[in-house]
From TrEMBL, chain A:
Protein name: RBR-type E3 ubiquitin transferase
Pfam families assigned: Ariadne, IBR, IBR_1, UBA_ARI1, zf-C3HC4
Keywords: Metal-binding, Repeat, Transferase, Ubl conjugation pathway, Zinc, Zinc-finger
EC code(s) of this entry: 2.3.2.31
Automatic annotation (TrEMBL), chain B:
GO MF annotations, alphabetized: ATP binding; ubiquitin conjugating enzyme activity
SMART domains: UBCc
The name this protein goes by in its record: E2 ubiquitin-conjugating enzyme
UBC core domain mapped to chain residues: 2-152
Species assigned in the record: Salinomyces thailandicus
Pfam family, one: UQ_con
PROSITE patterns for the chain: UBC_2
Amino acid sequence: MPAAFVGDEAAEPVTKTPPSTRKRKLVDSITTSATSQPPATIELPKRKASKTTTASVHDANADAEQAALPATPQTLSSDKPMDSDDDLNSVASSGMLGEAMDDSSVDFDAADSDDDGLEDFQDDESAFESQPKDLRPAKKAFEVDFNVYSPGDIQHQQDRQVEEVATLLEQPAEQTAILLRFMSWNKERLIEQYMDNQEEVLDKAGLGANMSSNPPRLEAIDGFTCDICCEDEPGLQSFAMNCGHRFCVDCYRQYLGQKIREEGEAARIKCPGDGCNKVMDAKSLDLLVTSDLTDRYHELLMRTYVDDKENLKWCPAPNCVYAVECGVKRRDLTRTVPTVNCDCKHAFCFGCTLADHQPCPCALVRKWLKKCEDDSETANWISANTKECPKCGSTIEKNGGCNHMTCRKCRHEFCWMCMGLWSEHGTSWYNCNRFEEKSGTDARDAQASSRKSLERYLHYYNRYANHEQSAKLDKDIFHKTEKKMQLLQSSSGMSWIEVQFLEAASQALQQCRQTLKWTYAFAYYLARNNQTEIFEDNQKDLEMAVENLSEMFEKNTDQLAGLKVDMMDKTSYCMRRRVILLDDTAQRLKEEGWTFNVDLK
Amino acid sequence: MAGNKRIMKELGEIQSNPPDGVSISLPSESDFNVWHATISGPSDSVYAGGNWKVEITLPKEYPFKPPQLSFKTKIYHPNVTNDERGAMCLGMLRADEWKPPNKIADVLKLVRAVMAAPQPEDAVETSIAEQFRNNRKEFDKIAKEWVNKHAK
Ligand SMILES: [Zn+2]
Ligand SMILES: [Zn+2]
Ligand SMILES: [Zn+2]
Ligand SMILES: [Zn+2]
Ligand SMILES: [Zn+2]
Ligand SMILES: [Zn+2]
């Protein structure tokens, strides 16, 4: 979602240019006045609707696993809930994303506007009512910290920021909201510019002095003709902002309806005047937006808030209303793959919003998907290695070095190089008049390397596609799982809780195949060195674990009850192998220890 | 409706005072939302001497949405799709740049200006744009061939 990165560009100059001392103090006062807690590198406990979690992809089925694996605490130690303050502190000191993030997201003292979300929740009294067991330590290299927010939370965050800045600027909340939206919610930039030139900022946001003394209103002006609808009847109600572009109220309303309803714009609608770039201010919008549009209008304003913030993204799952906050920035994406888990259970990459693609970095995912899509190498290979018979048109594959081709179908004899009649070449292809020694060698080399690179691609692609396919088949099995579970309950007298090991196994298969799938895209771009072997070993171990579990999973229902312990072991073994693979790969990625044969940027 | 009075006024103005090199007709007396324009190639361009039929469709939201343009006569041009639609979509013809006070006369002036000076950076036909940039001679040649073949 490129729109979400707009905030990145906007925020960048601010973090690079430290504010002057005067402004710095001012900004610091926001943080200190707003919170009694020390700045922390952990996410804070949340209010009811939001969830604070460590991005362990186990989360989705952690409960099921814990129910299913009561006697094997060693299996999922990273998922163990924390229950003491000591644990909490150890999280704080372990850092949000380790060294990789030290220069950016963890720098709370700089009052980086990107961290607003975290600060905002620190002074939220109710925040500390929630259970500390929701906090999980960010121990693994592949995990990132994130929060999930409901629309209510987002609204609350906005209100809180408006309140803070309003106190500081000594402006009413309503006007402050307009100013913040105008500045794309970049609090620090707003304060800085406001301190520099209050008049100008107010003016640009449509809140200038003449606005407060002269609030927007409808007028009937003698001799006015609306340039949009061409109406000119006397007493026609019209409106203009201070740029002077005047139109009748009906046209204005229709224009706004088009923008808000059809084009989804709200915070940055321009004056309808020809060539005018003046953004419509909120007061004018309040006056003109009809009641049937206000809900949509406010919803859009809220979306703008999330879109403007680099550290917030809407969950891409269809119909999901949650937003996720994560400190990973675009520039970090070469060193981390930030998978987050929405409360709706969808695991997605905060960097590119595609479904979870660990361990493969976003840039490689993009390249890989593109490659699979146009499948260009297959086409290249076909064009380099097959030609059509000049006589009958049937496709002929060249599979030896000899240029003397004989069509299998029509027995036409021709020269591979020039497609000319072989009979004109005499006894050997050396006589081909268009053949040059040099270009012939090149052609043969190109042919060989094209085939080799295709074979390499297909090796990885087949495995990638196989896991994608198997994951789909596993999903079908998952849907049958519930039925199996019911059968199992009645046939074995087991309780519902006891048969959940099947669901845990099914979900483990899904997750592990998802991971395996992306290991092949990762491996395709990996340049070979001694580290590659460790990766391939991890990959192989996970492959075997998954196949073992998958096989067992397809057994008959009457056998399943007896396999419970074994299956639980295999499930936890799969998950362990997955964690090992992801952790090791992410650790090296963070240390820039992998060499790729393409550019990650 | 806002649209009708406006459309009638625009039609009256454009028929009594058409932009240079343009004439307008209505194919149907009952439908004021489809206009036919005949545009002559700007004299100092490769299109000089040709005449193009362009269909202008006013959406029902007009003038809050831009009109749609369709070249009914084939033209070799980087900004016009080389298909049966013959669509052109740049500048004020784009939904996000269109402003309701913009007039069809302005659109037609834009079309002639873009015929005189193609905008390869906004191209819909990338290969034609590339040729326009890198092999102007060949571009001019084909464009003129198309004028003789289709627009005369
Ligand atoms: Zn009007
Ligand atoms: Zn204006
Ligand atoms: Zn979601
Ligand atoms: Zn990604
Ligand atoms: Zn043949
Ligand atoms: Zn030959």
